[in-house]
Design brief:
Strand content: over 45%
Radius of gyration: 37 Å
Helix content: 10-25%
Structural class: alpha+beta
Distance between the termini: 140 Å
Largest sheet: 31 strands, mixed
Number of strands: 33
């Protein structure tokens, strides 16, 4: 090649080599080589070494694959894990009581748009986007006595709040968006009372502006949580058996009743050893929260398709509360420790809306379960609506009879809809007080079954009256009006010799209850709780009754009056067949009136009844037996000498009235005593 041509080629090559494109390509290759073979491994090794040195070799960090992109200032890591190096016992022996043992892993971590220039100029950090996939967090807290973990000393109580920690590290933090997918969290405390919190969710997402932190204040934008599943399990160690005797092994099934208290409760309490006094904690939930987060402001939060389970176990006793599926929407979230109590928002938000598909609560040491259907709540509207309410035993009627050893009552309470209007949510959250203007129950069903076939319990039960129950409640409450619409009440009693129960029903019940409260200023004799109800007795006679109950009375005081309209006497046969083994052959009832006053448990008053052409038929002792000569003779004698066939103004002058005189005992329930005292005044009029 001639020298001029060679020189020209060399010139072209040098010009190409130092051209902007080649220089950029070489710089890019050099930078890629630097990042791949030097920066990424160096940063990874330094981070792993930093964690190991700062934790005193208690934890090991494994970043797996770490990539740093300087073009868009992003970091990506795969197969991340932070795991402890020692067993729990060895870990807590070194760290002391109340220490934490943490384990974290994630399949992928991405941090995009890191504001390096802002961090250098403004002494703060700004991050555009953080995404974490398959995050797993496990925390174990040791709550055992100090001797079980370390012989002396212990971790000092940390009173530094989260905002103070962040302020010491970075004065300003701004984060545009965060996304977590497939997140699992487990927090466990071990000790005499062990507790486990498990949280899993499909996605946690925030949108711009996500949140920012500056000068101890946290601000945020919109948050969305999808399909969280929360389990809170508490295991309490069983108390030691009482000294100086065997454990009570009284077998058999005893029906639990919501208003029954064992008479020997005081003796049992004295026999049990005195537990050590727990330190009093007077902090409210708001004070606990603001102690860690003094001021938090978020625009909105949405939680969809959530599920929560609360399980408590103490020895063999176990209670469970289930929220199967619910959604929450919160707007204008505000937590401010500087605000006065009167200025604080209910549920810390301007508008809190809850949509819950159901609620299940199994009463501890009881056969009863409370089930609530779809629930909707709105603090902006001050309303709470429950589409279905059911309180009933978790067993069939046959199983209840088979397992019952002593006399007891079984309760069933159902309602198609429960709605509360003008509910004070702020008082409910901060004062734990229930204040509402109106409670409405639609389609109420009250079913009471009383089995007199088994013997009486050797430990008599004491029934608590409504006034005593309300006075004993620690939570302040006031409900102005309770409306019951289209209700149904059935009382079924199974006598000792009967094979089946006898029902007494009240259909189409419409009632209004006013002034239900434990405010002493509204519980006087002049301001009693009043029940005004109408119903169809046995589906035939229209009944109206008014019950006035002074809630502040020391004894049991009540006044009830009412009237039953026209009906056929045969309508009562379904109840009389089992109770008295008689039935009305014919008879017309024009009206029944009653006015009874109870003072300190003693009932007195008058009962009146106008009826005509009353005749009865005596039934054989057992349902399977057929009536014979004996029953025919007894029916004749009863109609001729015992039953009074009429009590009417045109036939009797004057008409007979019954006198009520009855003393209440501890075995009498509220409505049972009202019925027995009324029956005692009605029996002399009829002759039964």
């Amino acid at each position: 090649m001639p020298p001029p041509l060679l020189n020209r080629v060399i010139g072209w090559f040098i010009a190409l080599l130092f051209s902007p494109g080649i220089i950029f390509l070489m710089f890019f290759l050099a930078l890629n080589f630097f990042l791949t073979y030097y920066l990424n491994p160096t940063v990874k090794a330094q981070l792993e070494s930093f964690v190991e040195s700062t934790t005193d070799s208690l934890y090991v960090l494994d970043l797996g694959d770490l990539r740093i992109n300087t073009e868009d200032i992003s970091v990506e890591a795969r197969h991340i894990s932070l795991r402890p190096t020692l067993s729990p016992e060895a870990h807590f022996k070194r760290t002391g009581k109340n220490a934490l043992r943490v384990s974290v892993s994630a399949s992928r971590l991405r941090v995009l748009r890191v504001g390096v220039r802002d961090a250098l100029q403004r002494d703060g950090v700004k991050i555009g986007f953080i995404a974490i996939d398959s995050l797993r967090v496990e925390i174990l807290k040791d709550s055992l006595p100090a001797s079980a973990t370390m012989q002396s000393g212990g971790a000092a109580k940390d009173s530094v709040t989260l905002p103070m920690r962040l302020s010491a590290i970075v004065p300003q933090i701004a984060l545009d968006s965060v996304r977590l997918r497939d997140f699992d969290f487990r927090y466990t405390t071990r000790g005499d009372t062990s507790q486990t919190i498990e949280v899993s969710l499909k996605q946690f997402l925030t949108t711009r502006p996500s949140w920012s932190f500056e000068s101890g204040q946290i601000r945020g934008g919109f948050f969305s949580v999808k399909s969280p599943d929360v389990l809170l399990s508490t295991q309490i160690a069983a108390p030691p058996p009482p000294p100086g005797g065997k454990k009570n092994r009284r077998a058999g099934f005893k029906a639990a009743s919501p208003n029954r208290i064992p008479r020997n409760a005081t003796a049992t309490k004295r026999a049990a050893p005195n537990p050590p006094a727990a330190p009093a904690d007077s902090l409210t939930f708001f004070e606990r929260l603001t102690k860690r987060l003094p001021r938090v402001l978020f625009d909105s939060l949405r939680v969809s398709d959530a599920r929560v389970r609360l399980v408590t176990s103490e020895g063999e006793k176990r209670s469970e509360t289930v929220l199967p599926e619910f959604s929450i929407q919160m707007r204008g979230i505000e937590i401010d420790s500087l605000k006065k109590p009167a200025e604080r928002l209910p549920f810390f938000s301007k508008d809190f809306r809850l949509s819950l598909t159901g609620f299940i609560y199994r009463l501890p040491d009881s056969i009863y379960t409370l089930r609530l259907g779809p629930i909707s709540l709105s603090t902006a509207d001050s309303t709470l609506t429950i589409d279905s309410v059911r309180f009933s035993p978790e067993m069939t009627h046959q199983e209840f009879i088979r397992r019952q050893r002593y006399q007891g009552d079984r309760f069933k309470v159902n309602a198609k809809r429960l709605s509360i209007a003008a509910l004070d949510f702020r008082r409910l959250v901060y004062d734990e007080a229930i204040m509402a203007r109106t409670v409405r129950l639609d389609g109420l069903l009250l079913d009471i079954y009383s089995d007199k076939h088994p013997p009486l319990s050797p430990v008599p039960a004491v029934f608590v009256m409504p006034n005593d129950l309300i006075k004993s409640m620690q939570t302040a409450f006031r409900i102005d009006t309770i409306d019951i619409n289209d209700g149904f009440v059935r009382y079924s009693e199974r006598p000792p010799a009967a094979a089946a129960p006898s029902p007494l029903t009240f259909e189409r019940v419409n009632a209004t209850i006013t002034n239900v409260t434990n405010d002493k200023l509204l519980m006087t004799d002049r301001t009693p709780a009043v029940l005004d109800a109408t119903a169809l007795l046995m589906g035939a006679g229209r009944m109206k009754t008014v019950i006035e109950l002074p809630l502040l009375s020391r004894g049991f005081d009540v006044r009830y009056s009412g009237r039953v309209g026209e009906m056929k006497a045969a309508a009562l046969n379904a109840f009389l067949k089992g109770i008295a083994r008689v039935e009305f052959f014919k008879g017309d009832v024009e009206r029944i009136t009653f006015d009874v006053s109870v003072k300190n448990g003693f009932a007195s008053g008058r009962v009146g009844a106008i009826y005509r052409n009353l005749q009865v038929t005596v039934l054989p002792p057992h349902r399977k037996m057929q009536s014979g000569l004996r029953e025919g003779l007894m029916s004749f004698l009863a109609n001729q000498f015992k039953i009074k066939p009429h009590n009417a103004p045109e036939l009797d002058n004057p008409v007979r009235t019954g006198r009520v005189r009855m003393k209440k005992t501890k075995r009498h329930a509220f409505f049972q005593f009202l019925w027995l005292s009324l029956r005692g005044g009605l029996s002399p009029i009829v002759g039964i």
